[in-house]
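Need Si:dkey-10o6.2's 3D structure for a figure. Predict it.
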Amino acid sequence: MDITVVDFSSFGLGKAEPSAKELQRLGSEITRAFTDIGFVYLKNTGFQQQNVFKTMEICKNFFMLPRDTKIRYARAFNNKHQRDGWIERETERLNLKHPADLKEAFNLTFPIIKWPSAKDAPEFKGSMESFFKQCDELAHRIMKPLELGLGLERDFFINKHKLIGSDSNPTTLRALYYPPVQKSSVLENQIRCGEHSDYGTFTLLFQDENGGLEVMNRSGEYVAVPYIPNTVLVNIGDLMQRWTADILTSTMHRVKLPESDDNSERQSLAFFVHPDNEAIITCCDGSNKYPPVSSLQYVEYRLAGTYERKKSPASDVLD
Ligand SMILES: O=C(O)CCC(=O)C(=O)O
Ligand SMILES: [Fe+2]
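Structure prediction for Si:dkey-10o6.2:
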């Protein structure tokens, strides 16, 4: 199983809308990939690889801060409407059958109250804000051909994603850091990111050169999804699968441990696209295969399962 690479140069960031024929081509190719495996690599999106790596480096500087500093920016777990901030290692478990994930993360979900100060993390705020904006623009550019590919009316998806980057939409930019792993301290079945499917519309994923991401193929085997320079990996989320009455596929994936104690770390940036809070998601083919659900209700229900009931870092810093 190979994940298709689609050339998105005709509608990359900053480009005018291409001809109807070209948009149709993009739509057919992307829709085919999302129908088959639920993942596609887009190349020439307008994202500069160097800028992606620079953003990761700025994030790494944050992750390298002492715990006492990072804890000041920890995500609160006592308020389900406040999901931004730092998430300590082994706090989340994306697969409930496995021990907690060997990763830490920083969420940018609006409203953002946990920005690290410029003193603690120079450039972090500006860099993440600008990355968020670029992701938002690319997400909207992907929706247009997708509407065409699925034979939906123009703006079908766009109209339900008007408030990205505000308190009325749960879309999240997440910086992930997977620290080096000492095999001797790893619990049974513990990996960097447990097998899961994403929750929302779709996800834009930017990986570094350290592998580990794997996707389940149709035979139920996990296969590597390597980093390809100058591409953005896009995958369908569960809400989109439901929205399209299972035409598009939300596929299980995971991040495995490095092969040996080779001190390799991993970083990624994930942009989880969700419809606006109040959007009601009803099967787009009129089949009513799944009952209508509000975007916010759905994401809150899914997120509730992700966190362990153990003492969370946020309880150290109730503010
Ligand atoms: O870090 C990665 O490459 C994947 C992370 C992921 O799948 C997720 O956070 O949903
Ligand atoms: Fe994921």
